[in-house]
Design a protein that fits this description.
By secondary structure, the chain is an alpha+beta fold. It is built from 14 helices and 21 strands.
């Protein structure tokens, strides 16, 4: 009898709890909850998740694909690290120290690694921090109550609730769904008073102080025959004007000439040598100007570790695909995948062109036959990286906009949360025609040295959302973002975002005590001044 009474009392207690919390639970029915939800398993998202977890917060890290690590797990294994000491600390330095110890890298600053090692190491660090990582979670929509995000729903059907959300995606998709102010493309020079802003002057390829003349027409000399692939007809736009042009995208290939670890380059489906006609004409024009073609033209010489090369784009005709950034950024996932496929096909075709086309110098073709994709990388993807190099997409327009002036003047802030370092390096923006020859629109890199980044550059306007932090697609001008956009800087910003999320009172990231935030970051090894 006593047992039955106790069971009735327990049932009544549970029923009371259900009634008490029923309304709150109903609002988040089917919603997986954590103190902090991070969208995007990029290096910036990973450091954000780890730092929040280390400050005793429950964290869910959502990755749209099947792999974390962003570009650092996808071919970009030279990391664009600072050539100066005392720039990157905290989790960034921790990761690089692990790489140095594992590979025995002799250079104390230039620390390289393998993509597969980076992914494995990131996974280990997340597991140690007890971060719950969920793969295949692409954002569909968000729910806001007044100015606070309460839930994000995914294409998979899952939903996630948190006190604070962090958008660490390259594309800024969460912040866009949250309806905060964003920008695509580049501002005019007048907007922020930046000399590096807006449309630049067209220039034909210049090699060894010789101008290289590349005919842009399908039938050479015949403007009525149409333009070759990769060339558009906009011509010179007004200098300094704003537009939606964006930096070219590519994939950072990992290649090797180690015979037992090499997947030979092969002819891709639908291969059409016309796609590389500009490259062939560039070679012919170089030879006409008395200039040779480096045998490593297509794969470069950036040797990292274990005899693997990190293949990036060259300035002129290489792995970069131009004029796709805007369509990719605003496109549906189906459109984005079409663009990714286009870029993958372009690069695979370029490697095949480089070793088979008779218009490529024989020495280059012979050199190319030695190389192939690394068989021990991206093993479920034929040796090709999973992640396209999205150099820029949407950017936040937040509580503070970082511009060229702040980088050059090395502005000091009361709310500095870390340092950035990299030249203002702008990849190709527009490839067009100037007086019947191919001309490119981009500018030379501008050195800026280490600079401080304020917390406010990661915050949307308070009236728009109160519990969202954006450490990757930060609030900066296009000109400034050409420096901010490197992975170690994203990692620094991510760690700061994770700490701020952990300290945000009732989830309000605008009410974080900046002094406390800076103390927490300093204690975690983050470097706040140079």
């Amino acid at each position: 009898m006593m047992y039955i009474v106790l069971q009735i009392k327990r049932a009544c207690f549970v029923l009371g709890l259900l009634l008490t919390f029923g309304s709150a639970q109903a609002a988040a029915a089917g919603c997986q909850r954590a103190d902090v939800v991070v969208y995007g398993g990029t290096p910036g998202g990973i450091t954000a998740a780890i730092q929040a977890a280390r400050l005793k917060k429950s964290v869910i890290l959502l990755e749209p694909t099947a792999h974390i690590g962003g570009l650092m797990s996808n071919g970009l294994t030279k990391t664009d690290a600072s050539p100066r000491k005392n720039v990157y600390g905290g989790i960034t330095a921790e990761f690089l120290a692990k790489a140095k110890a594992y590979y025995g890298t002799p250079d104390p600053i230039r620390i390289y690694f393998e993509s597969k090692w980076a992914e494995s190491t990131f996974n280990d660090m997340l597991a140690t921090a007890k971060v719950n990582v969920e793969f295949g979670q692409r954002i569909l929509k968000v729910t806001k109550v007044k100015a606070a995000l309460t839930e994000i729903a995914m294409v998979s059907g899952n939903a996630y609730c948190a006190t604070v959300f962090i958008d660490a995606s390259y594309e800024g998709d969460l912040m866009f769904k949250a309806a905060v102010d964003t920008v695509i493309g580049r501002e005019s020079r007048k907007k922020y008073g930046e000399t590096a802003a807006g449309v630049q002057k067209l220039a034909r390829p210049l090699v060894a102080n010789k101008q290289i003349l590349v005919d842009p027409y399908v039938i050479p000399g015949n403007s009525q025959s149409g333009l070759l692939p990769g060339v558009i007809g906009v011509g010179q736009k007004p200098l300094g004007s704003a537009d939606t042009s964006m930096m070219a995208f590519n994939y950072r290939l990992c290649v090797t000439d180690t015979a037992d670890n090499r997947i030979p380059f092969s002819k891709p489906d639908g291969y059409d040598p016309v796609q590389y006609e500009t490259t062939a004409r560039f070679f012919a024009a170089m030879q006409k100007a008395g200039l040779g073609i480096d045998e490593a033209y297509f794969v470069g010489r950036t040797l990292t570790v274990r005899n693997k090369l990190d293949v990036n784009s060259l300035r002129y005709f290489s792995t970069n695909v131009w004029h796709i950034g805007y369509d990719y950024t605003v496109g549906t996932e189906a459109v984005r995948e079409q663009i990714r496929a286009k870029v993958r096909n372009h690069i695979a075709g370029l490697m095949w062109f480089g070793q088979t086309d008779p218009r490529v110098p024989e020495s280059v073709r012979q050199y190319m036959t030695k190389f192939g994709y690394c068989a021990d990388e991206f093993t479920d993807n034929g040796g090709l990286p999973y992640q396209m190099y999205v150099r820029q997409a949407r950017r936040l327009i937040g509580q503070f906009v970082l511009t060229q002036k702040e980088l050059v003047k090395k502005t000091k802030y009361k709310d500095t949360i870390g340092l950035g370092f990299y030249p203002m390096d702008e990849h190709g923006m527009i490839r067009t025609v100037l007086n019947d020859y191919v001309a490119d629109e981009s500018r030379e890199s501008i050195g800026v040295g280490p600079y401080e980044i304020p917390y406010r550059a990661m915050l949307p306007k308070a009236a728009q959302v109160t519990n969202l932090i954006v450490p990757v697609a930060i609030s900066s001008s296009h000109a400034a973002f050409t420096s901010v956009r490197v992975e170690p800087t994203f990692m620094v910003l991510g760690q700061a975002a994770g700490a701020a999320a952990a300290l945000a009172p009732s989830g309000n990231v605008n009410k974080v005590n900046v002094n406390d935030l800076r103390k927490k970051l300093s204690a975690a090894g983050q470097i706040l001044k140079f």
